[in-house]
Amino acid sequence: MSFHEVRFPDDIAYGATGGPEFATSVVATASGYEQRNINWSAARGRWDVASGLKKQTQLDTLIAFFRARKGRAYGFRFKDWTDFKATGQALGSGNGTLKTFQLIRTYSSGGNTDVRTITKPVAGTVKVYLAGVQQTSGWSVNTATGVITFNNAPGNDVAVSADYEFDVPVRFDTDRMAVTIEQINLHQWSGIPIIEIRI
What integer pLDDT is reported at residue 118 of this predicted model? Predict the structure, then answer.
């Protein structure tokens, strides 16, 4: 997959509208009951970043960013300001052999949980804990995959957890720029969809 490890401009992302979406097929029976089928095992984010444009300089930056990604061709990082960090996130337990742990984000509500794989942690924000004690060395994180690797495998039943910020891997969901010239030096680009991609 073609992916650029570059983040979409934060100031434009801050005004974006959108969030997670699921794909559910709903079939109504003759008696009025419903059969609901979950088509995706995990949510996929979708946003419109047009609402984040406030200045001409932002539009100039966005046009350059769009051209560099060649529309839908290349993925990139996006900060979802509504959900971009985790604190005390449990990653699993050691067994004396396993050295790698994938960053995840767990959402719990009403006794149900949804586990999200995090592949794009933000460099410099990851803190790792063993049995609740922060580890300042002896591990590394791949910021392109979200995998934490320990120099020495954590011992049996030792809880592994982390604090971190993360980006979402996305791409533009259009190959076409639709810029309207409102007046001199004031242009508008309405409807700029971006969509989360599986990495």
Answer: 98
